[in-house]
Amino acid sequence: SLNLDIQTQDLRPSAFYDFFIRNAFKTAYPILGKLRIAGKGSLTLRLQGSLKEFSAEGSAKLQEGEIREESNKWRIGPMEMALPFKFLYPRAAREEASERPKTGSLVVQGAMLGSTAIPEVKAVFSLWNNSLRFLQPVHISLYGGSMVVRDLEWRDFVGAPKDLSFSVELKDLRLLQLTEALDWYRFGGNLSGSISQVHWIENSLLSRGELRLEVFGGRIIVKGMEILLTYYFY
Question: Which of 159, 174, 189, 228 lies at a 20 to 30 A Cα distance from 6?
Answer without folding.
Answer: 159
